[in-house]
Specification:
The strands form three sheets. Strands 6-7-8-3-9-10-12-11 form an eight-stranded mixed beta sheet, sandwiched between helices. The chain has a single domain, classed as Rossmann fold (3-Layer(aba) Sandwich), CATH 3.40.50.300. About 30% of the residues lie in helices and about 20% in strands. It is α/β, with parallel strands linked by helices. It binds iron/sulfur cluster and magnesium ion (MG). Magnesium ion binds next to loops.
């Protein structure tokens, strides 16, 4: 709720603060228990920072993060430590996030140890169980990350995230580094695990086609802001925000009978250190009006549960 993350920019010989990067700039949304909420946007739009701020791996500058009714931004380190059992993250690059010097048993066993499973044999048993849950085998436990393929390494990352039976998993581009053929296997696995363990995911991706299959709802971010959020079907069939429309027009259409008009956006994404006034998208928007460069559009429902931040829909609630 009202989540902001500003990073200071230091400059000059004295290293004084000369500005700030508004990586996440007043973002509000809810995640429903058991759902997969996709968050999509180009690199630098603030989607990873949003995910990490929710877990407080990055400290939010402002705003609330409510988990089961409690604002966790007020939690002290001990309360946060306990909460980390319930909230986990899976990273984009499974290789970088797995310690190359540790066996799989140690990697997956570590969160178990941290949360109080002192007995080594108990941990070993649980690690074997987790390996099987993600489609690997007990004998993989004694191996090292470099002995696995990219897809297998992401399975290890998923097993580690599942170790303490979390409720929410933030998936930060978990398949972006994988071959297309492996991507769908991992996505299918993640969907099965959600059903089996009643998980909730925030699934971050830069590609609308990746989240299309797996998400229940999808949010679109641009320059640190959420610009549209609704049910998957609605978003793909009736996108309201001009930026979403442009992103969708770039997704290849598998049906050759459907001819799509590609919307080409002018210019580059502006710097989040100096975002345009008003609607941050106005410098590239084909529908920009006078008001767009002056007043920031509110993120509000245009119809039931379809949120859009765009002046084209002002007064149509
Ligand atoms: Fe385009 Fe204006 Fe809507 Fe922004 S508010 S997306 S500039 S029409
Ligand atoms: Mg990222």
């Amino acid at each position: 709720n009202g989540l902001k993350k500003y990073f200071p920019i230091h400059g000059g010989v004295l290293g004084k603060k000369v500005g700030e990067v508004k990586a996440v700039d007043d973002v509000s949304f809810q995640v429903r228990p058991g759902e997969i909420l996709g968050i999509v946007g180009e690199s630098g739009c603030g989607k990873s920072t949003t995910g990490k701020s929710i877990l407080r791996l990055i400290e939010p500058s402002e705003g609330e993060v409510k988990f089961e009714g409690q604002d966790i931004t007020t939690f002290g380190s001990e309360e946060m430590r306990k909460l980390r059992k319930d909230m986990q993250i899976i990273f984009q690059d499974p290789y970088a996030s797995l310690n190359p010097r540790h066996t799989v048993e140690k990697i997956i066993g570590e969160p178990l140890l941290v949360h109080g499973m002192k007995s080594k044999s108990e941990r070993k048993k649980r690690v074997q169980e987790l390996l099987e849950v993600v489609g690997l085998s007990a004998y993989h436990a004694s191996r090292y990350p470099h002995q696995f393929s990219g897809g297998q390494r992401q399975r290890i990352g998923i097993a580690r995230a599942l170790a303490n039976n979390p409720k929410l998993i933030i998936c930060d581009e978990p398949v972006s580094a994988l071959d297309v053929s492996v991507q769908s296997q991992i996505l299918n696995l993640m969907e099965e695990l959600r059903d089996e363990f009643n998980l909730t995911y925030i699934f971050i991706a830069h590609d609308l086609s990746v989240v299309k299959h797996i998400s229940d709802r999808v949010g679109v971010m641009y320059l640190g802001r959420m610009v549209e959020l609704t049910d998957k079907e609605k978003l793909y069939e009736e996108p309201k925000h001009p930026y979403t429309q442009a992103l969708l027009s770039a997704v290849p259409e598998p049906d050759p009978d459907i001819v799509k008009e590609r919307i080409i956006l002018e210019g580059d994404v502006p710097s989040p250190a100096n975002p345009p006034a008003g609607c941050a998208f106005h410098t590239r928007c084909p529908f920009a009006m006078d008001i767009c460069s002056q007043i920031r559009p509110e993120f509000q429902p245009v119809d039931n549960q379809h949120f859009v931040a765009c002046h084209l829909y002002d007064g149509r609630q």
